[in-house]
Design goal:
The chain is of the alpha/beta class. Helix content is 32%, strand content 23%. Bound molecules: 5'-O-[(S)-butoxy(hydroxy)phosphoryl]adenosine (WT7).
């Protein structure tokens, strides 16, 4: 049960968490099951980057997610699984059944020679087996790396290779709305470029005929059936890695953020419990995919660590109709609903009767995550979904932070439209200007950094600690730089304004402009490309590409648009598709040859009046050209 149940208790917890860090976290850690108690609560800082929490402690996170609840309430429902197509049968798993499935899966992995510390790649849709598999991997001390089922074969191969996975778990195919995604076929393509893969396990979801590679490919269904439902948890060190999750940055290839077991466990669990104020008879539903961090922390770990009952949904918000989300809320009497602004905006655009016909009276708390929520969407969510009775928690956090960092606490601290508001206990946000000077006083505006490690911070980038240092700790030494800009109002409430680096947030998913440009550059008709984000009514941000062609005149813009999107779908996945392109004779550059993205972002957003001084550019005339084309 949550312990921050009043504004006073929030303040008290916050003060203690920053002043008496060790005793604050010791008390929380003691509520978990340990094989061996830790020696040292925390060590390391954002200078030495040798961060450790609960060092010397030994545990298995799945005992905390499963076994201890099975002892207390074996028949409590852990998961209500809702299939893509509502005419298919839904499934329910109690904590006892969940543990048995996890154990069976764990035994299958062991049987396929997966050992402690090995990396296991999951490339699946939102089937219960994905959840079983991730927990099974944690049970035997392997490290899971879940790759979202919308990524392409190339992207999958890159992620398999980066952390040398010898096993991939997938599905035959994945129903998603009206479509079916050929996950096994894509896995086969990826494996051609991923020599480390020895075994592919396939969950038979639809039964479609697939290619089976002898001695490499096995159906999980039968293997799980014949596996034992008991598996002793591997005893792990607090700082052993739990998982790797890839995300895009402003440069280079996606990076595998690595999280440690004990710190992440406490962070996912605490933030879930306090922010949502989850009570034991509540029904939680997070609409994210386990392929993203939200599905790690608020489907897999946070709710299960708290013994919660939750809904897991395989499908999409608009299938078979745009009332699907609301039908599911009604069907399972969901009390806590956590989704992304992009989904809210998409559903807001549909007939309001889709909402009105559903009974939403079970709802108590609403949540938002993934991108800044605009005022109109916030108001609609509040009025039409929450019926002005449900606090909305606007939760700001990142793949790197492991769990929620800045958010109001449902019904406890005030919700302010479009504001994440206050830091959770142990989170010390500060704003700095471009020179690294701390901006004190209110109101203020600057780059959002965090002082001092919290338990859930990612410990490294897999295989590249140097890149971890460079990416997050070099801009402002001693501070974690989030890549986001933020404002603080008169009362100190934070409002996150969005990325200040070359990362675009498309429907709550991060895409690096450099990644997209690299793919575009492969096209023979393009000499140079610059990609920026621009405001998009549903996605939050769309992708805008400025293209300099290799042979002027002969290029058809519509054809190029289609070809580039095909290429991007192949190399990255549909989420990297361009929304708009413009063909130009040149890109605005400084005299030293640096592309002026700031100007390109303004042009893409039609902010022609505030471009600033362009006279110092190498080629100010291209700015005029671009403006005249877009106006
Ligand atoms: C980026 C992190 C956090 C899980 C899903 C995304 C943006 C996230 C908010 C929010 C404004 C937000 C930030 C952040 N973001 N939540 N409540 N308000 N912006 O995880 O893919 O690691 O992306 O999402 O820009 O840096 P992610």
């Amino acid at each position: 049960m949550p312990h921050i149940t009043s504004a006073e208790l929030y303040q008290k917890a916050y003060d203690e968490s920053t002043k008496n860090k060790d005793s604050y976290w010791n008390r929380i850690a003691e509520t978990f099951e340990w094989d061996t108690k830790w020696d040292k609560t925390q060590s390391g800082d954002f200078n030495n980057l040798d961060i450790k929490w609960f060092d010397g402690g030994k545990l298995n996170i799945t005992e905390n997610c499963l076994d201890r609840h099975v002892k207390e309430h074996p028949n409590k429902i852990a998961i209500h699984w809702e299939p893509n197509d509502p005419s298919e049968k839904a499934k329910t798993f109690t904590y006892k059944e969940l543990l048995e499935n996890v154990n069976r899966f764990a035994n299958v992995l062991k049987d396929k020679n997966v050992k402690k510390g090995d990396r296991v790649c999951f490339y699946m849709s939102m089937v219960p087996e994905l959840l079983f598999g991730v927990l099974a991997s944690a049970r035997i001390g392997a490290i899971h790396s879940v790759v979202f089922g919308g990524f392409s074969a190339k992207a999958l191969a890159g992620r398999i290779n980066d952390c040398d996975c010898k096993i991939v778990v997938t599905c035959d195919e994945a129903p998603r709305g009206e479509k079916k995604v050929q996950l096994k076929e894509i896995t086969d393509q990826a494996c051609k470029e991923a020599p480390s893969v020895e075994t592919v396990l396939i969950y038979r979801r639809t039964g479609v005929k697939i290619n089976i590679e002898p001695n490499r490919d096995f159906y999980l269904n039968e293997l799980m059936q014949s596996a034992q439902p008991e598996c002793k948890p591997e005893i792990m060190n607090s700082e052993d890695p739990l998982f790797i999750l890839y995300t895009s940055g402003s440069t280079g290839k996606p990076k595998g953020l690595q999280h440690s077991i004990a710190g992440y466990m406490l962070w996912a669990s605490e933030t879930f419990k306090e922010v949502f104020q989850y009570g034991q008879n509540d029904i939680f539903w997070c609409t994210a995919d386990i392929g993203w961090i939200t599905g790690h922390s608020y489907i897999t770990y946070g709710p299960l660590l708290n013994g919660a009952t939750q809904v897991m949904f395989e499908g999409v918000p608009t299938f078979p109709t745009p009332s699907r989300f609301w039908d599911i809320v009604e069907k399972y009497k969901v009390s806590h609903f956590y989704t992304a602004p992009t989904a809210i905006r998409a559903l807001e655009a549909c007939d309001i009767n889709c909402v009105k016909k559903a009974d939403l009276s079970s709802l108590k708390v609403l949540g938002s995550v993934g991108e800044p929520i605009n005022e109109e969407a916030w108001n609609w969510y509040n009025k039409e979904i929450g019926q002005e009775k449900c606090p909305i928690v606007d939760t700001w956090w990142q793949t790197e932070t492991g769990g929620i960092m800045i958010s109001n606490i449902a019904g406890v601290t005030p919700a302010i439209a479009c504001h994440a508001t206050n830091p959770l206990p142990a989170v010390e946000p500060i704003l700095v200007d471009d020179k690294g000077e701390v901006i004190s006083g209110n109101p203020a505006k600057g780059n959002l950094c965090i002082k001092n490690p919290w338990p859930g911070v990612a410990r490294t980038i897999y295989g590249d600690h140097e890149r971890y240092k460079q990416t997050y700790f070099s801009a402002y030494p001693g501070l974690y730089f989030t890549g986001d800009g933020a404002k603080r109002d008169e009362n100190g409430n934070y409002r996150i304004t969005g990325r200040v680096d070359d990362v675009i947030n498309v429907s709550g998913h991060r895409i690096g402009t450099a990644e997209v440009e690299d793919v575009i550059d492969e096209h023979e008709s393009v000499v140079e490309a610059a990609v920026v984000g621009f405001p998009h009514p549903i996605k939050g941000q769309g992708i805008f590409a400025y293209l300099t062609p290799s042979s002027e005149g002969s290029i058809n813009e519509d054809d190029l648009f289609i070809e580039l999107n095909k290429l991007l779908t192949q190399k990255i996945g549909p989420i990297a598709k361009l929304d708009k392109i413009i063909i130009t004779n040149g890109l605005p550059k400084t005299r030293s040859g640096k592309i002026m993205r700031r100007i390109l972002r303004k042009i893409a957003a039609s902010e022609f009046e505030t471009l600033g001084d362009i006279s110092t550019l190498l080629n100010p005339e291209v700015v005029e050209e671009l403006i005249s084309k877009l106006k």
